[in-house]
Amino acid sequence: MDDRAFRTAMGKFATGITVITTNIAGEAHGMTANAFMSVSLNPKLVLVSIGEKAKMLDKINQTGKFAVNILSEQQQDYSMYFAGQIKDERSIEFDWISEMPVIQDALANIVCTVHSKHIAGDHTLFIGEVTDIVIRDGEPLTFFEGKYGKIVTNQPT
Fold first, then answer.
1. Does residue 133 form part of some domain?
2. Which residue in 68, 85, 67 sits closest to 76, CA to CA?
């Protein structure tokens, strides 16, 4: 199979959108990612997949810490900005939890220390042990077949 067929098949899996953040010398860094999942309840572990060409790879390797910010349906601009789809420079105001920058008003901010990492193909899988968490109500920003979306709930008629 060719790369396009593989990407198309993977696009059939609807996901939420996260921004992965870290802190280097007091400066916040972020990247958009939808390759995120929970791994374990005891201990509390999550996984993010970072491409070998992503600048974030070296940053997480350097800090040994990252935060996963699960975006709400109102935060598509954050996703586009941290994915490099919005080119103009923006001043992002972060909240800070345990010395980690986090996206304000995200549905969840999950602060982690790197528990382990595994190179798999052209990505590194970082398993993070959750050290702090903040949860908010709201609806998630979704991604399906290369397009952003929202959850539509059936309303009684």
1. yes
2. 85
